[in-house]
Amino acid sequence: MMTVLRGIPGIDVVVEFDTESYSPRLLRDHRPRVLLMDLDSFDIGDLLSRQLVGRSAEQAVKVLALSANLTPGTAIKVLLGGAQGFLHKDTPVQGLVDAIRAVDRGGVALDPLVAGELVTALRYSGPSEAPSGPGDGVKLTPRQRQILGLIGHGLTNVEIADQLQLGRPTVKTHISSLLRALDLRDRTQLAVYACMHGFRAHAAMPLG
Question: What is the pTM of this model?
Fold first, then answer.
C-alpha cells in the first residue's frame, strides 16, 4: 500500500512503522498530518490515548483507521477514541486517497459499508453509546442545528460555508459554540452526536 501511495501526487509518505518499531518519537520527529493505522495490528485505544488525544490542534495527528473488521461497535470505538476516519483495509487506492485528503482537510471518512450500519446502530442504541454531553436538554439555534446536521453528513468547514453561503470564520465560530454547548471534544464527536440524536435531518431544513 505504501509503495502505491508514494506514487500519488500530493501525498508524501514520511514514515512507516509496525508494533515492534513504533516509538512516540517517530510522530514527534516526522510530524505526519494523517496517520494510517492498521487496527488489526495496533490497539487504537492504546495508541490514541497515549499519543494523540489531548494534544493541541497544532500538534494533533489526524488518524485514518483501517481494519478488516467493519462493525458499528468498532467504528464507534474508533471515532470516540479520536480518529477521523474508518475504512476497510481493502479499500481501492482511489477511495483511500480520497479519504486521506478528506481527513487532512478536517472532514470525516467512513467506509460506505459501515456508515449505514453505524447510523442505524446509533439511532437505536442506548445513551451509553453516545458521546458524553448534556443531551437533548441543550437549546441549539436553528443555524447550529443545521450546521450540526451537515457535520453529521461529513462536510468540512469549507463545504458547510459554501452550502450555507456563510463566511468560513462564521462556520468555525458556530462549531466552537456547538462543542462548548454539547461538552464534546472535537468535530468527530459532533458527527457521531449528530447521527445519534437525529440532527442529520436538519441539514436540509431551511431557516426562518
Answer: 0.56
